[in-house]
Specification:
The chain is of the alpha+beta class and 282 residues long. The chain has helices spanning 18-29, 97-103, 128-133, 172-182, 234-241, and strands at 6-12, 33-35, 44-51, 66-74, 77-78, 87-89, 109-113, 122-123, 126-127, 143-156, 159-166, 187-197, 200-201, 218-219, 229-232, 246-247, 253-259, 262-269, 273-279. The strands form four sheets. Strands 1, 2, 3, 4, 7, 10, 11, 12, 13 and 14 form a ten-stranded mixed sheet that branches.
């Protein structure tokens, strides 16, 4: 069986879940697939999809920066924090662009953020959104997230557009809620486009209609993250393939591992010994 490992930089359309989008890639490629960084059904944009063993690299990609273009609608409140939810209140105060811009520095850097009740966070082994849909209380803890850039890029009426660069685990819907609360009002997310996720950018993404030629869009697994590399041939390569350690002078850390000029996976060094840690290729 052919060993297929790599990534599809998918431009997920609005109106479809991330899982449904991944299933379309799976059917087109005929190999197991997984995705990194779930996008809500209403959101669109970059959804990195791993084919085959490339999914084993997700642990090395989780801390990569993401970029979003979001529209927040002020003066409304819903149970999901976006326009798809049940409307709880409307006609609330709509701040000016100047008022919004003045508080944005407070939400830049490392901040504490409470995830939405309607989210995929686990609560005692149950997804939070399942509890929320049943009307049960959802006890979530705030977590530390990092906002690298938060700028107001336009607005009309009660809707304002924001550009956001942030670390993993950030909920943009929560950001809309918290900015509005700081201004003594409410806001919901009206639209969201993910423009970047680590090495994956929207301008390079492919749509679902492009999957008939998915091989032409397959990104090599070693091309999606920066890491020093090591290459071994012959006997040393054989030893690493068979789980043996090599004495090395490389400093402790992770390395892209090439064996006989082929990307094999990830190696880990403790400063004295080097071992193959993650196997990608056969």
């Amino acid at each position: 069986m052919e060993n297929i490992s790599g990534f599809i930089n998918l431009n997920k359309p609005s109106g479809i879940s991330s899982a449904a989008a991944v299933s379309k890639v799976r059917r087109a490629a005929g190999v197991p697939c997984g995705h990194m960084g779930t996008l809500d059904p209403m959101a669109s944009g970059v959804l990195p999809v791993a084919l085959g063993n490339a999914a084993r690299l997700f642990g090395y990609l989780l801390e990569k920066e993401k970029a979003y273009r979001a529209v927040f609608r002020f003066g409304e409140e819903t149970d999901t924090l976006d326009v798809t939810g049940k409307l709880l209140r409307e006609g609330l105060y709509v701040p000016s662009a100047e008022e919004i811009a003045a508080v944005l520095p407070e939400f830049t850097g490392e901040i504490d953020q409470l995830p939405p009740a309607f989210s995929a966070k686990n609560v005692n082994g149950v997804r939070a959104y399942r509890l929320a849909r049943q009307g049960q209380p959802v006890a979530l803890e705030s977590r530390r997230v990092k906002i690298n850039e938060l700028t107001l890029s336009g607005g009309a009426g009660n809707e304002y557009t924001f550009f956001i660069r942030c670390g993993g685990g950030t909920y943009i819907r929560s950001l809309a809620r918290d900015i509005a609360a700081r201004l003594c009002t409410s806001a919901v997310m009206a639209s969201l486009v993910r423009e970047k996720s680590g090495a994956f950018a929207l301008e390079d993404a492919v749509g679902l209609d492009d999957l008939s030629d998915w091989r032409a869009h397959l990104v090599p697994p070693d091309a999606v993250f920066e890491m020093p590399s090591l290459d071994f041939d012959g006997k040393d390569a054989w030893r690493l393939r068979n789980g043996q350690a090599l004495a090395c002078a490389e400093k402790a850390g992770s390395y892209k591992l090439y064996l006989d000029d082929e990307f094999y996976g990830i190696a880990e060094s403790d400063g004295a010994l080097l071992r193959a840690k993650v196997k990608i290729c056969a």
